[in-house]
Amino acid sequence: xxxxxxxxxxxxxxxxxxxxxxxxxxxxxxxxxxxxxxxxxxxxxxxxxxxxxxxxxxxxxxxxxxxxxxxxxxxxxxxxxxxxxxxxxxxxxxxxxxxxxxxxxxxxxxxxxxxxxxxxxxxxxxxxxxxxxxxxxxxxxxxxxxxxxxxxxxxxxxxxxxxxxxxxxxxxxxxxxxxxxxxxxxxxxxxxxxxxxxxxxxxxxxxxxxxxxxxxxxxxxxxxxxxxxxxxxxxxxxxxxxxxxxxxxxxxxxxxxxxxxxxxxxxxxxxxxxxxxxxxxxxxxxxxxxxxxxxxxxxxxxxxxxxxxxxxxxxxxxxxxxxxxxxxxxxxxxxxxxxxxxxxxxxxxxxxxxxxxxxxxxxxxxxxxxxxxxxxxxxxxxxxxxxxxxxxxxxxxxxxxxxxxxxxxxxxxxxxxxxxxxxxxxxxxxxxxxxxxxxxxxxxxxxxxxxxxxxxxxxxxxxxxxxxxxxxxxxxxxxxxxxxxxxxxxxxxxxxxxxxxxxxxxxxxxxxxxxxxxx
Length: 519
What we know:
Distance between the termini: 34 Å
Structural class: mainly beta
Low-confidence stretches: 21-54, 164-171, 278-284
Order of helices and strands: HHHEEEEEEEEEEEEEEEEEEEEEEEHE
CATH class: Mainly Beta
Mean pLDDT: 85
Number of domains: 1
Largest sheet: 18 strands, antiparallel, barrel
């Protein structure tokens, strides 16, 4: 297929999708059921009730759509004639007794990205711009109180230009494919909780998503194939799983990575909220409740590359994440510590990471701000010639949230400090400002990309500083369904980048604009 025909095809898809989205936008504005996205200061009384009651209807949209519970509290009081069309297609009865029902929904996202000097000037590439389209649609079948079948399809496409020249699809583009396709079976359901199993293809997401995330920033998303189970104890949840990651095959059928096995055992004292806008910011408000989650993960991979070399690895990660407010004060805190051990090639593996955050939310400020500081440390390898690998691996993180929306720098051999401010400029307009400074943890190790590849080898440099970065994110929540987000970041390379390339490095610039419609 020629570049011209691909350009035409993509443009037609984009035009049709835009037309449908803006038609839905107009219908949404005129519907009687408009509320701001939870997590903003524009919450209505209904939104506030949803915070208290997890069974409020309609529920909030979630990042992983199968986490939404659309079963009405009382079927007899549900008046569909008063609902907008996108709520009428939820909880559709399949039987007169309402014991079986189905919900339908989806999401469309358009994103433009303009990138300058993606490799700090080491490659001939000066610009890399992309127009991206992603569509999701799901069907959620419930048969009685114990059986559920969830199907969610995804389609993504892009048109990219390198230095003004069109190129084929990105490697993360999806032909029509299943993002989620699994069955859930509730073994025991009682007042104290439930015990269940799931089997199939499913997105995984835990804690603050530093280690396991569905990676909503990607034009495609991340999912796994395997099985797992859960045990609910009141608000607490115990989860276990054994899976293999799904590999995106552009213009083809996605497949399992048979060289990788990923398993885990996780306990959380309550469900970690992940609203539909989670790809851009956790929240513009302080944490509402205390959260803590201990975990154990196991990861087997073949032919993994670090500065030390390439080999098979068995990596085990044990850790704890905890965050929440200090009662009666405007302060909040977060901490996460992870220790990794195991085998790499013929040697040992020992690595660790730590995150510390502290925030304050001054009372009675018009913009409801939250100011917070963050320190991240991820170990590197002290000696590439010894028999122990010391490089931390974040495995499957939501990387763009923590070290810049460019997604260039991974949590490996990294020290990062940041100062941040969240605020509501208007009832529906949220803003985040951030400034980062990043260093190598060990001078014998390199800097890694978020795709796991090596961005820059040490090349004998003793310099540690990777760069300084400033970033701004603006998000406008039109209503329950539509979110518009603009973001920009500017990164000035540090001494290490300068010393490991021949010519003077260029600053990295990235500007992104995204419109997301969820229904």
